[in-house]
Amino acid sequence: MNRRIMSKKMIISADEHEVRIAVLEGDSVVELYFGRRGKQSLVGNIYSGRVQNVLPGLNAAFIDIGEEKNAFLYMDEVFVPPELMDDSGPVPQQIHKVLKPGQSVIVQVIKDPIKSKGPRLTTFISIPGRFLVLMPYSSGIGVSRKLDNKERERLREIAHKIRPREGGIIVRTAAKGVDDSTLKRDLKYLTGLWSKIKRKIGKVRGPEKIFQELDLLSRVLRDTYSDDFETIITDPNQSC
User: Fold this and answer.
1) Which class would CATH give 46-124?
2) Residues 6 or more apart from 234 whose CB is under 8 A from it?
3) DSSP structure class, residue 145
4) To 10 degrees, the CA torsion angle through 128, 166, 49, 204?
5) How many other β-carbons are positioned within 10 Å of the β-carbon of residue 6?
6) Cα 236 vs. chain centroid, distance in angstroms?
7) CA 151, CA 101: separation in Å to the nearest integer?
């Protein structure tokens, strides 16, 4: 029995306090996004940070990223450089063996601050595009599990052919049916963006933001919208 293809639509609404975006399949809401007016999310931003305190008991560190609150970095989110690895993988499992107070570190926000808690960080940088995600400090290739097996294999073959010399890539759901030349263009854009980020990293002299992620609406359109959508509905009385 063939699975019925449900129509997809996006509803965008805003008031003076927040922006709301819903993605529907048929009559069911499958994704829901909220963003506060005048306060953009930090998630996805990349910073040159400075280690403030190392907490061996928590296996974590506080990082000054130049925002209102110091950010929090767990050891599980710390990229271990090749020189600290052996054949069995990363040698140090304790954060004080990798990070020291005053040390500079490139980080990315993965969770916004909540009340008294600062942002959560990772050093596993990821740069999303329309069809691909570039992982500069990884060497792997991944393909969205939302695609069927045949399409995943097709895209995996293309990914192996176009993979950058340094770094790994993840093929996104939006790449369904996309040809290799289109994926190459997306990868070229992402590697060019990473080159610009690296040049800026070499120039900063303290805690500073070096990459700003898109605003909520632009990010949702980039990450979610595809040819499968029949309609985008916006609130006629408000501007997003």
Assistant:
1) mainly beta
2) 11, 12, 13, 240
3) T
4) -100
5) 14
6) 31
7) 47
For strand 28-36 and strand 46-55, is the pairing parallel, antiparallel, or unpaired? unpaired
Helix orientation angle between 149-162 and 180-201, rounded to the nearest 10 degrees: 50
Does 63 score more than 70 pLDDT? yes
Q: Look up residue 36 and give its two tokens.
A: 């506060």
Confidence of residue 2 (pLDDT cuts 50, 70, 90): very low
Q: Report d(CA 134, CA 195) in Å as an integer.
A: 12
Specify the CATH class of 1-39+215-240 in words.
Answer: alpha beta
- What are the two backbone dihedrals, phi and then psi, of residue 4, each rounded to the nearest 5 degrees? -70, 130
Instruction: Quote helix, strand, coil % in the chain, to nearest 5.
Output: 25, 35, 40
Give the residue, 86 or 113, on which the prediction is more confident: 113
**Domain map (residue ranges) of the chain:** 1-39+215-240, 46-124, 126-203
